[in-house]
Write a structure and sequence with these properties.
The longest helix has 22 residues. Strands 11, 12, 16, 17, 18, 19, 22, 23, 24 and 25 form a ten-stranded mixed β-sheet that branches. Strands 1, 3, 6, 8, 9, 14 and 15 form a seven-stranded mixed β-sheet that branches. Strands 5-4-7-2-10-13 form a six-stranded antiparallel β-sheet. The chain has 14 helices and 34 strands. By secondary structure, the chain is an alpha+beta fold.
Length: about 700
């Protein structure tokens, strides 16, 4: 590893590379902290952004490999610019502009160029004291706050580098590449009542941008981004302390500038310093991890189709190397609860196995130094963020189990088994003989609408957190028991199965009346009872759920825990009409309420925006938060009716549940075993057309509605 003296300008590590004959191949192995961009003879190496990505740098650091044979065919200059990235930027919602990074400060680089010649000889060029440093025109970069570039700055004299100690072991990459996957052009240039120039992209998205600049030397171009407008003017107050800006000082030469070491979550762009701005001067560059599309769905309901696109865009925006809660404000953290809730849905939309494998590996490295505890966010950023809670921590059992169900590969279970078992053992150590885990802090049914306080800013739901915590403890124990059995670990399978049985008995005794009535009388409480087969009288429990929905005029009150399962449980218990009523409800609270207010991604809150278009609050309010997008799982598994009958979809169940108000359904899913497709059309009140496709070598049981 090499480093350099601290300086206001980002460093450019440079090495002249000479070749002594015809090359057979040249490979660049490289990593940098925080993030790097490599160029050979001025041309960018590869097409990735923000490598080496975001992980628990205290435990491991990824390196990337690039084929540079053509670029170095005649030798040349390798220049690597290093920015702050996640490693050296302030991170977390407690941080303030100007705070130091949680992991470290100062730029570091390690690289190795392996030259293989046509005559069979090999030469290796490594980072060492023969490299030197110059300074770029980037004077600041931050994940939250953006980037500053001053092209009027003079070139600097070469400086020596110094050898430095490794921060953590290097490992070959887990992360999928983050690339420019799409470009989006503005649909409108708005002159606001406040005299602002604002571009509307028509879509809330995540990434960076390309801006064509023609301005006099010394001119300052200032860019800010936001998700929504207010009173016809630019708005970014819901970003809290995140500046999300770009400042460029022109040298008078017309060029296209692109922020390099940051990313933004935005739909609207305010630009100052370019009075002659034209829409064609700006292009949004959409960044997300390289995950091939797996599912495509179109229905006969225009607003549901917009909802589906919102779910898709929410996934793309929050799948930038880490499954983040949101991509725009001073957070952008890998909250385990959000990741867990959305994990099955994610796999019905994109090929997510390698993406979650990397996240779970990071999670396991955190647990190794935390006694099995799963921190609320992964990477945890250090001690300030190392709390834990049920539902959130249970991501370490639920996500690998979901991956196994969707892809049929036991490898993920084998890789994560120690992590999964360590989490259950950690809970057991806290639970003791008096169920102490229940008294730990838990987020519970986060952002549900049924808390007795009924305050507009209330985040906690009304469902007993002791009940939720013990159910998820039970679920994780059962998953670990089933995983151990699959992996041939008989003693551990028996141990965790016995624990799950004891917890079942406790749950029934503690939270259910002798006649089968669930004592946790909330929508989420009843949904969890039915989903987990806990009630001695499921019929009575389902009847009570129907009554609770009727009391709210068919509207949901659920949060992060209840919402993902609500429509599925209703459909399982012959209440598909109520499930469709929830889906198609256009009033608050409901999915189409946001669609009617112009949402192009999923919101954090059911009422992130009020009916009059005003933002409901700024303390915790994101317009790109994918958790409630988990409704897509119900659309795939129930409305389309496609589920794996065996892990990996070698066998499937196709049992569509149509509804005339949805009109039609066309869902294509590229499973690990091949492409399934389900199409249905409600021709009239008496006629349904149904068409299915099953991959070669697979079989499916078709259950006609």
């Amino acid at each position: 590893w090499i480093t350099c003296q601290a300086h206001p300008r980002h460093p450019v590590f440079t090495k002249q590379i000479a070749v002594s004959g015809p090359l057979e191949s040249a490979r660049l192995y490289i990593s940098g902290l925080g993030v790097y961009e490599a160029r050979i003879n001025g041309q960018k190496v590869g097409d990735e952004y923000l490598a080496p990505y975001c992980n628990n740098y205290h435990q491991w650091i990824q390196y990337q490999t690039y084929d540079v044979t053509q670029a170095l065919s005649s030798g040349g200059t390798l220049c690597v610019t290093v920015g702050n990235g996640w490693y050296a930027s302030r991170m977390g919602y407690f941080s303030k502009p100007g705070d130091a990074g949680h992991y470290g400060t100062g730029a570091m680089l390690i690289a190795e160029i392996v030259l293989r010649y046509a005559d069979g000889t090999e030469e290796v060029v490594c980072t060492d004291e023969s490299w030197h440093v110059t300074r770029s025109c980037i004077t600041d970069s931050s994940i939250y706050d953006g980037e500053t570039r001053d092209d009027t700055l003079p070139q600097t004299e070469p400086e020596p580098v110094t050898i430095t100690q490794a921060v953590a072991p290097l490992v070959e990459r887990y992360s999928r590449s983050v690339r420019v996957q799409e470009t989006v052009a503005p649909i409108e240039l708005i002159h606001t009542p406040a005299g602002e120039l604002v571009l509307d992209l028509g879509q809330n998205l995540v990434g960076t941008f390309a801006l064509r600049v023609k301005a006099e030397a010394g001119s300052k171009i200032f860019v800010q981004v936001g998700e929504v407008m207010q009173n016809g003017c630019f708005y970014n107050e819901n970003l809290r302390t995140a500046k999300a800006e770009y400042t460029y000082i022109s040298d008078g030469v017309e060029k296209t500038v692109i922020p390099t070491f940051t990313f933004y979550g935005f739909r609207y762009v305010k630009i100052e310093g370019l009075p002659d701005l034209k829409m064609e001067d700006f292009t949004a560059l959409v960044l997300y991890s390289d995950l091939p599309q797996a599912g495509e769905m179109i229905t006969g309901h225009e607003k549901v189709n917009r909802l589906i696109r919102n779910v898709q865009w929410g996934q793309k925006g929050n799948f930038l190397d880490v499954p983040t809660d949101c991509p725009q404000r001073d957070e952008r953290l890998g909250w385990t609860g959000d990741a867990q809730v959305f994990s099955a849905t994610a796999c019905y939309l994109r090929q997510c196995y390698p993406f979650y494998r990397k996240y779970l590996h990071d999670m396991a490295t955190e647990q190794q130094v935390l006694g099995g505890m799963v921190p609320d966010i992964v990477p945890s950023l250090g001690k300030a963020y190392q709390g834990t809670a049920c539902v959130w921590g249970d991501a370490c059992t639920i996500i690998p189990w979901n991956l196994y169900q969707m892809y049929g590969d036991k490898t993920i279970l084998a890789e994560q088994f120690e992590s999964m078992a360590a989490w259950v053992d950690y809970i057991t150590s806290l639970d003791g003989e008096d169920h102490g885990w229940s008294r730990h802090f838990h987020y519970g049914d986060w952002l549900a609408l049924d808390h007795p306080d009924n305050r507009p800013d209330q985040c906690m739901g009304g469902t007993d957190v002791a009940y939720i915590s013990q159910i998820y403890y039970h679920n994780s124990a059962k998953i670990v028991a089933d995983t151990a059995a699959l992996l041939g670990k008989q003693a551990q399978a028996e141990k965790y199965a016995a624990l799950a049985d004891r917890l079942t008995q406790y749950l029934v005794q503690e939270f259910f009346a002798p006649n089968g009535r669930c004592c946790i009388d909330t929508q989420t409480g009843l949904v969890l009872a039915l989903r987990n087969d806990l009630s001695p009288n499921a019929e009575k429990c389902a009847q009570r759920l129907a009554e609770k929905l009727a009391q709210t005029h068919g509207k949901l009150q659920t949060g992060f825990v209840g919402t993902p399962f609500l429509c599925s449980v209703l459909t399982d218990y012959d209440m598909a009409h109520q499930a469709y009523q929830l889906l198609l409800n256009e009033d608050y609270p409901g999915w189409l309420y946001a669609v009617n207010l112009g949402a192009t991604t999923i919101w954090e809150r059911w009422n992130s925006m009020n009916p009059d278009g005003s933002v409901s609050s700024t303390g915790m309010n994101s317009f790109n938060h994918y958790a409630y997008g988990a409704i897509f799982q119900w659309l795939a598994e129930y409305a389309a009716g496609l589920k794996p009958a065996t892990p990996g979809f070698r066998r499937a169940t196709i049992a569509p549940v149509p509804h005339r108000h949805l009109g039609s359904m066309d869902y294509r899913y590229d499973s690990a075993a091949g492409q399934y497709r389900v199409r249905w059309e409600a021709v009239d009140d008496q006629t349904l057309r149904l068409w299915v496709q099953v991959p070669f070598g697979c079989e499916a049981e078709l259950k006609k509605p």
